[in-house]
Amino acid sequence: MSKSPAPSAPVTPARPSAGSLEPLFNPRSIALVGATERSVWSIAAVDNLRRFGYAGRVHMINPKGGTIFGSEAAPTCSAVGEPIDAALLMVPESKMLEVFDDLHNAGIGGAVILSGGFAETGDGGRQRQQQIADKARVAGIRMLGPNCLGYANFVAGTPIWTTPLRRAGGTPQVALVSQSGALASQLEQFAHQQRVGLTHMISTGNEADVQVADAIEYLAAQPEPRAIALFLESVRDPVRFEHAIDAANAAGKPVVVLKVGSSEASAKAAQAHTGSLVGNDRVFDALCRKLGLSRVHSLEELVVTSDLFARLGAIHGGGVAFIAMSGGMCEIITDQAEAEAIELPTLSADTGRALREVLPPLATPNNPLDVTGAAMVEPELIARSLRTLAQDPKIAALSFVFDTPPKEDARGFARRFIGQVGAGFRESGKPCVMFSHTFSGVTGEARALTEELGVIYSGGGVRHGLNALGQLLRHGAWQRSARTARNVVPEAALRPDSERAVLDFLADRGVPVIPAQVVTSAEAAAACAQKLATPVVLKIASPDIRHKTEVGGVALGLGDAEAVRAAYEQMMQRVQAARPDARLDGVIVSPMRGSGVELFVGTMRDPQWGPAIAVGLGGVFVEVLKDTSLRLLPVCEDDALTMLSELRGSALLDGFRGAPAVDRAALAKIIVAIGDAALALGPDLVSLEINPLLAFDGGIEALDGLTVWEDAREQH
Amino acid sequence: MSKSPAPSAPVTPARPSAGSLEPLFNPRSIALVGATERSVWSIAAVDNLRRFGYAGRVHMINPKGGTIFGSEAAPTCSAVGEPIDAALLMVPESKMLEVFDDLHNAGIGGAVILSGGFAETGDGGRQRQQQIADKARVAGIRMLGPNCLGYANFVAGTPIWTTPLRRAGGTPQVALVSQSGALASQLEQFAHQQRVGLTHMISTGNEADVQVADAIEYLAAQPEPRAIALFLESVRDPVRFEHAIDAANAAGKPVVVLKVGSSEASAKAAQAHTGSLVGNDRVFDALCRKLGLSRVHSLEELVVTSDLFARLGAIHGGGVAFIAMSGGMCEIITDQAEAEAIELPTLSADTGRALREVLPPLATPNNPLDVTGAAMVEPELIARSLRTLAQDPKIAALSFVFDTPPKEDARGFARRFIGQVGAGFRESGKPCVMFSHTFSGVTGEARALTEELGVIYSGGGVRHGLNALGQLLRHGAWQRSARTARNVVPEAALRPDSERAVLDFLADRGVPVIPAQVVTSAEAAAACAQKLATPVVLKIASPDIRHKTEVGGVALGLGDAEAVRAAYEQMMQRVQAARPDARLDGVIVSPMRGSGVELFVGTMRDPQWGPAIAVGLGGVFVEVLKDTSLRLLPVCEDDALTMLSELRGSALLDGFRGAPAVDRAALAKIIVAIGDAALALGPDLVSLEINPLLAFDGGIEALDGLTVWEDAREQH
């Protein structure tokens, strides 16, 4: 505090690197602009700095001067006469431009703006926010907010936070970024109750400058955070966001996200057909799969999961072995593991034999393993069981269910028991975690004891614990999966917009399409049919007609030359009568395909996240059940295979009712080719749909293709 | 304790009503048989009785005599010379028969058996358990266990529990029944942490006599429990179980259940076709719907939900209004409410206007309502908002999100704030509840303060709180739904087992079936077809042939007499060649139906829960997607309508691709009739399947019917 300048923090000039976030998030001196003893915000900010033992200088700034919180207030930052890194702005919105001039003059590098009255109030506020953002950029000031509660850098002991804040409990390993300041407070409280140590907590408010992406990228570069918890309402800059998540993953700091609401912008995408099939929230899910974001659905899951990411890391391969001390708990774990798609490997015969030797007579070697209440009398049982289970090659991680006593007991039982758990954990050589039975707060003593004895303990209980384990396993799988999808460069000149042009384009790109020939006379149609030597289909060829059936522009199953000729003439007459305005290029002649499995493959363009691809079974599956799997593009063949396996009707591909099985590998190649084709068509493409893509005994073929373009959403 | 007999508990003769559970669960005196100071079980049992201040006499029984826990031990119960209501048996399994003779002689009414070594160990143990059960029945002794931890009657201050136990915190309102003693302990611990007051806690162990059904029926008759929490592994006697749940509901005590594992017995049902479509766990779900059981999926949900049932009761009709103090929390509530199918009514214009008058300028009248941090300064905002929202007729219940401070603060803020919440709750005149933001333990002070100020507060957090609210709303809907399904008496003489016999039987029972005539000559077939004046279908009529298509026993779409004649002759030849053994009754002639919506209606018989009915859309929907809705029989038309709405492909009934919409009311009547028909066929019927039931423009018709019988599962 400025009352007692810390001798260990010598006054040096403010950092020169304008644009860096270091002065903002790790300032060596702070100005509280608009500080007053009558404001709860000022009181909280000053109390927090004091309680955290902030080592730098803190300057009170108030145009009225006087003594504030025991310090002589300066009228402006420039008047302080010392270098200042960061300022907390608690002044009315109307003074903000003036204040920024002062910050500029004082050479301040970072500003935290508590004040509201900006973009959150409407257009006028948005303009005023833009004005200060412009000023800040010119002045090289990085800005958090406006309309935010601030941040706390727990590892540096630096809070610029405007509601009462505790010091973090537990070893700080989790960084927290939230677009809601109030929820950041709630998360901090919950983290403290669970003794989950926070390294940083950043609330980004209106994000006039620093967005969640910047905060995440800053945290990715810090040594302390081992995982990042993110509360997200909307992403302002998708490109920066993706880049930041990539940076965090590259730094080995997985990001766990609680995302609420549906994006306003994405609603636009729903206009395209494929878009209306999927919905915005599923696009975010697809983004999570792409970026390796672990998505959770409650505040509790956000904290419990990021804590376990920080302490265990992603888990690679295989299943999990569980140990509990009652049969009932083992049954709960079995049900819950299934719900979380956690594999509970059946123990090998060797493991079973080895377990029988270490277990009491009544216990049966199973997974989950019920070691019975006997372990309370003989805690060595736990260590032995863990060690034995860990030798099973199918076991990638181990978990034991037990509630840490809130404090060490006089007779040392807790220490002895947890000590055995720790011994088992260490000797297993695999990731191990102990969960409480149900949600329960973790005391500082319990956290210290478990850490001392080498036990990773979560008070999240079995339900949240298994949910988190599922995320750790999925993230491990994501890390392993080769990101082999190649990026395709858009080729702006391409713009196929008739059925035939779309199919020809797809054929050029490696997608098998149904043979077809455009003919302009009944005779040519009949000749073409004879050459094909199979019943044929006639379809009207016109760039102006989208729904061919409605104008009588489709004739199916024509068996002989006579029928083809007649169908040609009738079709021309019908279509001309129905659509005298339409340009008719002739008639498309194609072989008539027999039955098979119809698939739907369609791409869409999310306004935020860009092109995505949906795959589904055709007909009622996609139209009634909306049974599709979605990924952002590009996708690789592994992605496409996973997509197929995700379909509810997936079994139809395996040869339903005696039909031949669909060649999934070939299908996956085609899906990748369609996705790449859509990318090649560039950013004006709204949607490329192949419906149906037919898998029949002769192979797989696109029977129809459709493109929708940005400036003409109804074209073929 | 026997050391200091309570003068308020005069010694009277043991209750005469043999068979009553009163001596077991509310004894006026207790014998601890096998008590010894060297056993942790004895120590815990004695400590618990002391800590609870048990008012009756406690007798130590040990054949060695001597002073145990300060009391003179008697060698047997008979030797005590005083009436004893209940005994806790902590003796080896080998002594048990002898001990029961002693209990009989001593006129003891209830026995709690801690000892294991019975049915849980295999066949030998099962026999020994039966022996003591027989003895107990003869002696009129009601028995809890064996292999159980006991019970605690918190309202009477009577624990017969063999691990350390606390007195309950919070007003006792929730009774707990668990088949696992260890999980009962965990649930008690968690309930205490949340200050959820327990009235009773009963662990039923091996259930040689008292089953969960008996415990629930006993609790239903007690005045204190207002809801019952049940941890269930398997139900031994389905009839008693249903009866007990009915009794609890009739007494206004909803039952919340956490059910694990899948029933061994139900696996049998999977052999029948419909059974393989559904699975055992779904049968239990159907049972929950029938009985009004609220099924939860974690220990936390079990406690939080039964607590809210006890304090709020079921909620009837309409949606819920939520108030929170941040926009972020409102967004979380919106997402979560959707996940729990809780309606968040849009506020009426009147409510909006009224709210605008009471809210600060920046707050917007919405549901959820963000009252902003301003409420911290002006808590009256909460009361006013609650009052105003409650006037909206669409709002059935209200909820406010706020964490109770762990203790009253010096300046009385907590009291003032919670007081305003309580005022708003009272004035609303509707069910109201306050949830913490995230899971958090509830202190005794917090519980007392909220109770004093009229605030129902749950520390379960928003996720579990909304989950529980969803259950309260669904239970309210269940209570309202008229249980109009009538019971059908089986008619043993009926046993239709050919397709024609099944369809004729269904027709008699009000199910429209396709017209059909069995003919025995090609001429008769042609004549019949001409009379129908529509293309016809021929099907071989034989009780010995199940899969008609495979033997060439089906011919479709025969347009003229010649074709019918030819088809008849060919079919007879083909079938005779393929199945020379089969009895052929002739050929069935039916009109050929055009396209329509194919449905599947099938009944199954669960070995535990009896007949059930599954409804689905036909073809791939039921065969690949297993998209069925399941109910236990009988069902009423409302049930059938709900079943149709539950189907994923439900939209197909509304006229997909221009097809006419299916008359859902008519369809529901037919489903009820099919269910009733299955009931009429009695307990030997394994399955009655109508596949397809065709809804076409001419109406709804059963096209094919199949029965499977207990002693001949492969018959037609």
TrEMBL record, chains A, B:
InterPro entries: Acyl-CoA_Synth/Transferase, ATP-grasp, ATP_grasp_subdomain_1, CoA-bd, NAD(P)-bd_dom_sf, Succ_CoA_lig_flav_dom, Succinyl-CoA_synth-like. GO terms for molecular function: ATP binding; ligase activity; metal ion binding. In the N-terminal section; belongs to the acetate CoA ligase alpha subunit family. PROSITE patterns: ATP_GRASP. It comes from the Bacteria. Residues 1-20 are annotated as: Disordered. Pfam families: ATP-grasp_5, CoA_binding_2, Succ_CoA_lig. This is Acetate--CoA ligase family protein. Keywords: ATP-binding, Ligase, Nucleotide-binding. Residues 503-539 form the ATP-grasp domain. It comes from Solimonas terrae.
